[in-house]
Amino acid sequence: MVTIANYQVKKNQRGEQFIVLNLISDIVLEKSTNTGNYFANTYKSNIVASFDEDTAKLMVGKQLPGNIIKKECEPYQYTIKATGKKKTLTHTFVYVDNGTDVYNDGNNTNADGMEGQPF
């Protein structure tokens, strides 16, 4: 499950407003590559909504079925806000509905990279 944590009102290139929902995952336990210890994390992602701001306000706090997964992408620069340090990343986080093959690359691979396996 993911939770709608917040929303943003954005404008497209034509100056029209649209809504972006800010999603946050359930807790994820990850193992540190430096220490080998586990730490708690959450993943965040955004999706565009087709409804208005009043409806978006009502959606904050609601849960949706699905997950936020790490997906490989073209390298891009990211600046760490706290330190100002720039880092090159090769992944992004995307929302996927449970069992949906939304990133089928023609090789029958599910969004989690498991060929032919459900989530």
Quickly count the helices: 1
Main sheet: strands, sense, barrel: 4 strands, antiparallel
* Mean pLDDT across residues: 85
Structural class call reads mainly beta
Give me the count of strands. Answer: 8
Number of domains: 2
Percent of residues in helices = under 10%
Sketch the topology as an H/E string, one letter per element. EEEEEHEEE
| Beta-strand content bin | over 45%
Q: Provide the low-confidence segments as ranges.
A: 105-119
Task: Calculate Rg over CA atoms.
Answer: 17 Å
Roughly how many Å apart are the termini?
12 Å
Trace the largest sheet across and list its strands: 5-2-1-6
Q: Which shape, going by the Cα principal axes?
A: globular
Walk me through what this model shows:
The structure is a single chain. By secondary structure, the protein is mainly β. The protein has 2 domains: 1-63, no CATH class; 65-119, no CATH class. It has 1 helix and 8 strands; from the N terminus they run E-E-E-E-E-H-E-E-E. The strands form 3 sheets. Strands 5-2-1-6 form a 4-stranded antiparallel beta sheet. Strands 3-4 form a two-stranded antiparallel ribbon. Strands 7-8 form a two-stranded antiparallel sheet. Strand 3 and strand 4 form a beta hairpin. It is globular. The relative contact order is 0.18.
